[in-house]
Amino acid sequence: MASTDYKVSNHIHDDVVLSILSKLPLKSLKRFTCVCKSWIHLFENPYFITMFCNNLISRYHSFYDDTCLLLKHTFPGEDDCTMFLLSGERFDSKLKLDWPHPFQENSTNIEILGSGINGILCLYKVNHTPIVLWNPATEEFKAIPPNPVEDLCNFTTLVTLHGFGYDYIRDDYKVIRSVDFISTLTHSEHDTTMRPQPLWEIYSVRMNCWMKLNVDMPPRYVSNAGGDVYMNGACHWWGVTNNEMHLVSFDLSNEFFLTTPLPAYAYDSFEWVEKHLVVLNMSIAMISNYATTASFHISVLGEFGVKESWTKLFIIGPLPCLEHPIGVGKRGDIFFNKDDNELVCFDLSNGKIEKIGIKGRWSFEAPVVAARNLEATAVVASIESIVVAAGIVVVVASIKALNIVVGEVGSADKTQEEMKIVVVETVVVETVAVETIAAETAVVALETFVSILRFIYQLLLVSAVVSFLLVD
Amino acid sequence: MAAEKSSIKIITLIAADGSVFEVEPNIVKEMKTVQSYIDELDQNTVSIPLPNVFGNDLAMIIEYCKKHASEEETKEAKEEFDFEFVKRMKSDDKLRLLQAASYLNMESFLQFMAKAIAAEIENQSVEFVRDYFQIESDFTPEEEAELRKENEWAFK
């Protein structure tokens, strides 16, 4: 470039460099603080932090394609739970879902383990039986077989579910639980040496059984909020060892775990700070709730197992109207319970608080779950499978997906009619698609047949020539 | 004013090396530097010198703008184009195009190039990044060692 006669400025503007750096992941950015002095203080530059944070929450992750939000809520003073599917730009469409069969008669105390994966949720009751895997789009469900742990003399067993997730390597869904033994003896009779070690067990859908895990992980720290999450093939929860809280991350494919201590600054405050574990646009994040200042601090983890890699990126507040976070949706949408028991969505990218429009005396206890493939993808997936030539099953599946909408929105007759039309149209379109493919296949087959004939004809010709030459 | 603007049929861009490009008005909409120049003039034909952009780079930028301004192209086709566009570039090309985008004040193309460069330097060494941006270290060896120790986890 220097050899040319034209002078083009070689200088890259600082704000352009900042724009590049703001698109890096936390780890690379921390490494590059050693490049030059002006890069050390990047995290003290509010302009840069804003850019970096916006990139962090808006970065594209295929996980969030076609996801929708599910909200479980419970009336105060009652144990009955209801599940809503929220959709639309402003979550203006709310659809009540029917619980799967095992929970239909008694819908009290239903809990959701972790988040939804590929449209599948793991539901359980407080006493842990039954545990059900449920796909609300297809209404399919599967009850996980119980695996009673043998009762030991003088001990009762305490089973705690720790996570539900997906094993990418084996294409399998798994559930992890711990089994602890609690002595029934009085303190004087108690002999600590006799107490068996807690067990860890893993359930695999493919094997359809529970298996013992050979690990010794910190168990779930139950009294803290936002218990467990799933991200990228691993289950994560707050665990406690030696009276210190850790993030425990269990890899479902390789069956190993890592612990990450909380950052030193997490213990700076004298007040009790509620710490919520969330997944913020595919980053593990901790929302610390400082009640006295009515503010929320969000720290993102840069590297599993490294305490120093927690980085405080967002400070929300003071906003006394927000009580506690319920869950995180797509991008930077954080759902909060407001002081008047209304559900609001806080948009991290612009700080706007929006009402979801669910009013009344309800309280929202369960996390908001982003579950994949709930309806849209179920239909898309079906069209794809028609190409593989499994027409009928697929069409039924799409109608099923749409039926959920019909059944629930259908209080107004007009809507129901419109929905029916949609169903009919879908079937028609798909049938046409099948026919077209069939016709194409026929053409290909005909062409192949003709080319085979041509080949045989050529073979005959050659052999005729050869025999003619031999005779000659 | 609106009538005058729409009367412009062809815009001539002249690169630093003298190469000439004739483009339609919708292609330069993204280039705010060029657009503001056009807006100030009320002529039917406009010729704009761009002394900070090389001909080769300008050709690539116009190719990009044409693809993205097209209403016939699907989103997938544009994404595919972006992927191939970055793939055939060397590091130097990316930096030059980034500078050109900055000079032409093309916000979305600038973000696109910044993203491509970020993807290239991600997970690379400190030395690689210094070399890439031609930055001289202004640390003493002791200072740098100290800083590396502080952020040890980020070097693994």
TrEMBL record, chain B:
Residues 110-154 form the SKP1 component dimerisation domain. Keywords: Ubl conjugation pathway. InterPro entries: SKP1 (IPR016897), SKP1-like (IPR001232), SKP1-like_dim_sf (IPR036296), SKP1/BTB/POZ_sf (IPR011333), Skp1_comp_dimer (IPR016072), Skp1_comp_POZ (IPR016073). Pathway: Protein modification; protein ubiquitination. One of its GO terms (biological process) is protein ubiquitination. Residues 9-69 form the SKP1 component POZ domain. Part of a SCF (SKP1-cullin-F-box) protein ligase complex. Involved in ubiquitination and subsequent proteasomal degradation of target proteins. Together with CUL1, RBX1 and a F-box protein, it forms a SCF E3 ubiquitin ligase complex. The functional specificity of this complex depends on the type of F-box protein. In the SCF complex, it serves as an adapter that links the F-box protein to CUL1. Belongs to the SKP1 family. PANTHER family: SKP1. This is SKP1-like protein. It comes from Cicer arietinum.
